[in-house]
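Section 3.1: Structural characterization of target chains.
Under the original work plan, the team committed to producing a structural model for every single-chain target entering the pipeline before any wet-lab resources were allocated. The record below documents one such target. The sequence was received from the expression subgroup and is listed exactly as submitted; it comprises 606 residues.
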Amino acid sequence: MPFDLKCFALTAACLLLSFSAAAQEEIAKITYPKFPGTSARVQSIFGKSARQGALPFRVTIRNNSGADRVWVVTLREGSGSRKLSTESRFEFPVKNGTEIQEDVIFHFSPAFLAYDYRNLEVSITANGLERFNRRNGEETNRDFPQLAVSKALAQRNLTKLNDLVKKADSQNNFFGHRFEASYLPTNGIGYSALDGLLIDADALSQISTGQLQAMLSWVRFGGNLEIFFTDGVERGKIPGVIQEKLDGKETAEISLGSISVHKWNGSVIDSRAASKNGFLLKGYRPRDQSLTQDFSRNWELQKRFGIKTFNPAFVFILLLIFAILVAPVNLFVFAKKGRRHRLFITTPTISLSACLILIAAIFLMDGLGGNGLRSIFADLQPGRDEMRLYTTQEQISRTGVMIKQGFETEIAYDINPVDLPPSTYNPFSRSGSQSTTYEIANTTYQGGFFRSRSEQAFSIRAANATRSRIEQTGISNGIPVLVSSLDTGLSELFYRDDSGTVWKLPPNTTVASGSPIPLEKTTEEEIKNWISAEKKVFNTGLKSKITNLGKEPNRFFAKVIDPEAFALPTHPGILWKETEMLLTGTPLKKGNLISPEAGIPASTNE
């Protein structure tokens, strides 16, 4: 009997694992008939296509072929007449008799450089084994948010919600994609294609610390986490770090994103969730709309940078001189009658000389490398559950002659090109005919990121682990005592405390790392005007978010002495003429802070 129970338990576990895997969409699978038990499979976590950002995919490879082998999985999207295609190539060494399971991230072109219909191609190769290719097509939503829905919520609701979305607007094809919570990525970039994630409290309580950290990172950058619970007991299963941020409320703004909780009956979700203006999605704005609309007009950084126009006079004069030399002068002077054989020497010499003159002129006019401007919005969250610096960087640059178009980084970026106003140097102008490919794998960004004689602008986001912080160590004479441990000094600072009182660093005062920050009381109008002036370099959507953050208690805003220290590096050949930065964050409170006036413990996040 014990043996039978053991067999039953193993069988049940296998069935459960099989069902869990089936919850994710299989987009490619190959088995090798000559080697039974050898296979390669690719599954999508949040669907197989997106209108911007990156999606996670799970690769499972089993090797029983009799030899150690290296599998290569390549994901491609956007080939053909598209201006921008993306490609990622991943290598997986697999020892004989073993199975590996790896999660990878694939980046998609933003909507303004793509079609609504996306075609993801998967290629799987291994040394000594047959090649496999598969295309996966999907029509994306035109203007409905990109959502992911946990298995429990999707079970009795997703089909109905999909139908409601499509009925409301035929250009939107689905409400969201089902996911299995155990498959959630531990890399925050894997959530970047999503606008919202709907998850039941029971599933949320079972995810790992790494998955939760990645999810919170995505929220900090603007994601919307929607949590559904059935009763008080299930709400109590929500992880403590999220409970702390909600602080008993139903909705909490978390940096640029939000977390909300919703009570449901455990079976049916209110059909109003399918409405763009309903209780769930009200206020949502798909990020692909920001990349398309927020940088093409009224972007201060682009205005400062200006638009360079192309002067055709030089090229026209050069071509005219070339035509005169290669035809009449060549025929009647260099290789006149009786010396026509010289054409075999003079013609290529004239052509080569013209090319060298053109190259030299380009070097003189445009130079080697490029220059640009960038702005940084950094959110410092030093709490024990995070210890992260969330950096949103917007940059625009113009290149001359580029020897290398790609770059490498130390950490992975969520990087997206943005829609600039049309110009001669903008390769993605609607009238342009050039196309390129971004080849992205982990921290390597190759392909046409920085092409010669072109303009490029990117929105880049990255989360860095950090021990830097601003701490509140106490209260002295009613004034908060703040200490900076940043890697650079501070030149300006405003702080709104828990009570809503606003403090500032006195004018003409700088604070070195490790030093206390002197504060004096200021007015609501002064902090409002200061934030209004500092936020103007960012895109319109981010400016609106910064305005809201300015009203949040227990948050500081600051200017640092060396903003370059916080910049996300891209191509080393670009000279950044100006880097502006706005630093914000939550001070870390140590111990039980005692207010001398009140005689009671002040709030703490430790």
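Residues 5-22, 592-606 have pLDDT under 50 and may be disordered.
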